[in-house]
Write a structure and sequence with these properties.
Length: 309
């Protein structure tokens, strides 16, 4: 990983203009494979029957929602696995196998493939933490992006598995992670695998960050779930999934995509035969007078404060 990494004037101009920037070969293949192996170990150890799962089917929708909210909110302080949701066909096939004459009626439903691991890897994991807090990352954010004190608030290992990786609709990171009185969130997205249109690479809408993030996901009144405030016409209309102007951010393994917190971005389903693993981290700038909103879904306990990168 390069030390003393910064941005050229042309790169900084492009980031300010477009709201995103692709930095090829920012990290080494060895770094990416180390992250892949670490995530694979977490995946192998994950048991949804013991650890719980955020995506599952139940006849009690209210109870399911309550469990999902608690599981999700708890991932602010504890690393948790989130699954892809099994399709109706997959559930039917599993049920049929259990009922077959030679089937095991007590056999569990198949373990769903993982969608992601979140949201404390950058602070809590022995492989992800030193990678996330490296001198190269810190230099990029301070010398390159111009942050005063970059602080990591969340991280995710995203699987986007071959043939099962789900689509992510157009969104802005600052909708989900926000500071006041100004939004300062920046996203860093590493291609652990080569990312191309065929396996669900990121897409971004140039210049869509200029209007900020008018819609916010916030904790509800009871602080046991989330709701949305405001509307985002650009995300729902002009910036919708079929709108013109979107550009694919294809990048080889080790490349880094910088994302302004308000830029619209998305990714399609991975219908290919190759995975598209990625690692992302979101940071805020701890400037004087800027605070982490208490309405954010992600609230760390006092004993686990955010750390500067």
């Amino acid at each position: 990983m390069p030390v003393g990494t910064t941005l050229t004037p042309a790169q900084r101009e492009a980031f300010d203009r477009d709201g995103f920037l692709v930095l090829p070969h920012f990290s080494s293949d060895a770094d990416m494979l180390a992250l892949r192996d670490a995530a694979g170990a977490i995946e192998a150890a994950y048991d949804p029957a013991v650890d719980g799962a955020c995506a599952f089917t139940t006849s009690d929708a209210a109870a399911a929602r309550k469990f999902s909210d608690a599981y999700f909110l708890g991932s602010a302080a504890v690393t948790r696995c989130f699954t892809e949701e099994l399709s109706a066909d997959e559930l039917a096939a599993a049920a049929a196998a259990r009922k077959a004459p030679d089937g095991d009626a007590s056999a569990p439903l198949p373990k769903p493939p993982l969608n992601k691991i979140g949201h404390t890897l950058h602070d809590a994991h022995p492989v992800f933490a030193p990678f996330s807090h490296s001198a190269a990352v810190r230099s990029l954010l301070t010398d390159g992006v111009g942050m005063a004190t970059p602080v990591g608030v969340q991280s995710m290992y995203i699987f986007k598995g071959a043939r099962v990786g789900g689509a992510v609709p157009p969104h802005r990171d600052a909708t989900f992670l926000h500071t006041s009185p100004v939004d300062t969130v920046t996203g860093l997205w590493w291609a652990v695998d080569d990312a191309a249109v065929g396996n669900g690479c990121l897409w971004a809408l140039p210049g869509s960050h200029r209007g900020g993030a008018p819609r916010k996901m916030v904790l509800n009144a009871d602080r046991d779930g989330t709701t949305f405030e405001g509307t985002d016409a650009a995300a729902e209309g002009a910036g919708g999934p079929d709108a013109p102007g979107w550009v694919p951010l294809e990048v080889a393994r080790g490349g880094l995509v910088l994302l302004h917190g308000a830029v619209l971005h998305k990714s399609g389903r991975n219908t290919s035969g190759v995975p598209r693993h990625a690692y992302s981290m979101h940071v805020i700038d701890e400037q004087p007078g800027v605070v982490w909103d208490k309405s954010n879904w992600l609230q760390r306990p006092p004993e686990l404060p955010f750390r500067a990168v």
